[in-house]
Design goal:
With about 500 residues, the chain is α+β, with helices and mostly antiparallel strands. It is built from 14 helices and 15 strands. It has a five-stranded antiparallel beta sheet. A five-stranded mixed beta sheet has the order 10-12-13-15-14. A three-stranded antiparallel beta sheet has the order 1-2-3.
Length: about 500
């Protein structure tokens, strides 16, 4: 490339020095002679064991670079090909694993959102297939259990809602967990959601709080009663029992409205007391007259007949009282069979007037029946309706002063027939009008016994009218007489 005579001495070049030292030297540097980088190889030539000279060859770095670049391109191409193939294989392997996992994840999310029973269908024979089959079985079983749980919960909610007993559940902190509609009505809870609210905040009855604490303190069932003074006075029986667990997680309260039961118990006690009192009076009279006769009055012609007559009167009073008691008991128990048929009202009124005509004439009372449509009929039992009229007219005659008037009227009103029994008697005070239909209730007890009343006539009237599907009402004022109105369905 150049004239050696004009070149500088190359003995100082690095590859020459390396060859002088080791026998071979390789170096790359910029050639000042040619003006571009060169790659040099120098070999030392020995003669007779001593260095005789050097041989040096060179290649332009551009040629080396081209070869290196070609090798690099080959390496990069192979690397890229291997990378692509590796990536594809990896993707295929990973996808084969991740697709079932993605389906499992999606199915788990759907189940968590409430879509129970969802299946993933992983058709593989490896661990993922086993996992998918297990997941499908778990999902199906979970769906069945959740469905069963919802059905059981709805069933319990329906049962609790239909119960007439109130049910309240409280947790360990005495916060309300559940209260059915009956409990809300009994304890007068406010409307809206009350779950989580403290019991003491909603219930102002010390008996309830004490029952809850006693239930937490022991295993025994706690029983108590308390009175609710709200819109209406009620007596509530409370049963408290703690829930199973150690410590117990809560207490269940069961509430019963026993107002009617206690009222019936009071009525029963009053009834027994009244019956005992009513029976005691005639029996005491009979016993006294009989003892008087046995002690010598039997041979006294001035008094023995009067005593026997008194015994007969008291025995008749006892008989009437027992008959009325039996009749009332049969009506209340529903054991008395009534033949509900169309009954002509006018005909029964005429019979009643004829039946009580003698008693009315004895007191110079005018007993009359106003004109009544002969075609008017009511749905009732003929004997029962006759007893209703007889009791009302009999009472009117008893409590009407001499020379008074008792009137029976009937009229048709829409779907009912109304029978009015009016008198010009002593009348009934407003305070007593609400109770005259109670058993043994008398406005004037002494006068009622004097007249031979049993105190059961109006009670029998009320129960008979109710048995026929009707109503009975009273309109009265002191000193102006009374009017009893019986309404019965028309035939």
């Amino acid at each position: 490339e150049q004239d050696p005579a004009q070149m500088e001495n190359h003995a100082s070049r690095t590859e020459i020095r390396m060859a002088a030292e080791r026998g071979e030297g390789v170096w790359t540097h910029f050639s000042r002679t040619l003006g571009f980088p060169m790659h040099y190889l120098a070999l030392r030539v020995d003669r007779d064991g001593a260095p005789a000279g050097f041989v040096r060859v060179a290649l332009p770095m551009s040629s080396v670079d081209r070869r290196v670049a070609a090798i690099q391109r080959l390496v990069w191409g192979i690397s890229l090909l291997v990378g692509v193939v590796t990536l594809a294989v990896t993707y295929a392997v990973v996808a084969r694993i991740t697709r079932p996992l993605a389906r499992l994840t999606s199915a788990a999310q759907r189940i968590a959102a409430g879509e129970y029973g969802h299946r993933v269908s992983v058709h593989r024979q490896d661990e993922l297939g086993t996992l998918g089959d297990s997941f499908d079985r778990m999902s199906a079983e979970l769906g069945q259990r959740v469905t069963q749980m919802h059905e059981d919960r709805e069933l319990l909610a329906t049962v609790f809602a239909s119960m007439i007993e109130g049910v309240v559940a409280v947790d360990r902190a005495e916060r309300i967990l559940f209260a059915n509609s009956a409990a809300r009505a009994l304890l007068e809870f406010p409307s809206g959601d009350i779950a989580g609210r403290p019991l003491w905040e909603l219930v102002r009855h010390r008996a309830v709080e004490q029952a809850v604490r006693q239930a937490f303190a022991g295993d025994q069932l706690c029983l108590s009663e308390f009175e609710v003074a709200g819109s209406s006075r009620r007596i509530v029986a409370l049963h408290a029992a703690r829930l199973p667990g150690d410590p117990p997680p809560g207490v269940v309260l069961v509430l019963h409205d026993v107002t009617g039961l206690r009222r019936l118990e009071n009525l029963r006690q009053e009834f027994v007391a009244n019956v005992s009192h009513e029976l005691k009076t005639p029996l005491s009279s009979i016993k006294a007259y009989a003892e008087t006769l046995l002690e010598g009055a039997l041979g006294d012609p001035k008094h023995n007949e009067a005593f026997v007559r008194q015994i007969a009167e008291q025995a008749e009073r006892l008989n009437a009282l027992i008959i009325d008691l039996l009749s009332l008991a049969q009506i209340e128990s529903g054991q008395q069979a009534f033949e509900i048929v169309p009954v002509p009202v006018a005909e029964l009124i005429a019979r009643c007037v004829a039946q009580h005509g003698t008693a009315a004439a004895a007191k110079r009372i005018r007993l009359e029946a106003a004109a009544c449509d002969a075609a008017l009929r009511v749905l009732a039992d003929a004997e029962g309706l006759g007893q209703i009229l007889s009791n009302l007219v009999g009472n009117a005659i008893k409590y009407t002063p001499d020379a008074g008037c008792v009137t029976i009227r009937c009229a048709a009103e829409d779907l009912v027939a109304v029978i009015h029994v009016s008198d010009t008697g002593i009348g009934i005070a407003p305070a007593d009008q609400a109770r005259v239909f109670e058993r043994f209730y008398r406005v004037d007890r002494a006068r009622s016994r004097e007249l031979g009343g049993t105190g059961l006539g109006l009670a029998i009237v009320k129960h008979l009218v109710q048995a026929f599907g009707g109503t009975v009402a009273l309109d009265s004022a002191l000193g102006r007489g009374s009017t009893f109105s019986v309404r019965l369905p028309r035939a």
